[in-house]
Amino acid sequence: MLASLRVERYGDVTRLRMVSVAGRGIGIDVSAYVVRGVMIDTGFVRARDLLLQAVQALDVRAAIVTHWHEDHAGNVAALAARGTALLLRTDTEAILRAFPRLELYRRVVWGSPTSLSAPIHEPELADLVCVHTPGHSKDHQIVWDASTRTAFTGDLWLGVRARTVHSTEDPYAIVESLRAVRALSPDRMFDAHRGLITPAVDALDRKIDWLSATLATIESRIQAGDDDGTIVRRVLGGEDAAAIV
Ligand SMILES: [Zn+2]
């Protein structure tokens, strides 16, 4: 068994929590969420069969992807082939139609996704709104359900102290995006890795404060003449487990 999937219920929201064997070893899992027949994110390719079973069982009629990363968009190709309506940003779709090159540890943990070749058709989703929240990746978006004041935030939040800021991330854009979601005053937030976060506003405020303070510290270190490696070790606490793998 290369992956497992656990179903958890939070009232109107169903969490599909997926973990690969390699991911379990380093304590990383990822979730897709289903609300009123719409799935947010699609998991990684090694969980494909389990995810498709859940799509069938939960009568999922459409899927939205928060960003192109393989643990979120890993099963877009399989869903498109099956005829599930998909809502992707155009930049996300362009990346998925090319073959994204993944770093080794990401292929080990999540598997290599197949590139998207089937045409996609877009669903009508009057009651769910996508908000572009770049930073973690340029194409990152969150899904906002105003009827329940719920934000499905993908990889925007990821805990208050995410120790490693990946080189492809733009931490200044992340702060702006966190503020944009904070301005919606969400009651609930569903994070792709941390699950249900409530009260959401509180968690967003703490992340905004921590990240802003961290960036200010880095700026002052740069002005004091520290080299990059020293700054990373002192301020960000070194590389995390996933980066070492
Ligand atoms: Zn990501």
- The quaternary state of the protein chains shown equals single chain
Q: How many DSSP-defined strands?
A: 11
Helix count, per DSSP?
Answer: 9
Decide which structural class fits the backbone: alpha/beta
Structural commentary:
- The protein has a 6-stranded mixed beta sheet with strand order 1-2-3-4-5-6. Strands 7-8-9-10-11 form a 5-stranded mixed beta sheet.
- With 245 residues, the chain is of the alpha/beta class.
- The chain is globular, with a radius of gyration of 18 Å.
- The two termini are 21 Å apart.
- Helix 7 runs antiparallel to helix 8.
- Helix 3 links the parallel strand 5 and strand 6.
- The chain is 36% helix and 21% strand.
- The longest helix is centred in the last third of the chain and has 25 residues.
- Bound molecules: zinc ion (ZN).
- The site of zinc ion (ZN) has 4 residues, from loops.
Q: Which terms summarize this structure?
A:
245 residues; alpha/beta; five-stranded mixed β-sheet; 9 helices; 11 strands; globular; binds zinc ion
Write the layout of secondary structure elements.
Blueprint: E1 3-10, E2 13-20, H1 21-25, E3 30-35, E4 38-40, H2 48-57, E5 62-64, H3 76-82, E6 85-87, H4 90-97, H5 104-110, E7 129-132, E8 141-145, E9 150-154, H6 171-182, E10 188-191, E11 195-197, H7 200-224, H8 228-236, H9 241-244
Parallel strand pairs: 4-5, 5-6, 9-10
Antiparallel strand pairs: 1-2, 2-3, 3-4, 7-8, 8-9, 10-11
Helix pairs in contact: 6-7, 7-8
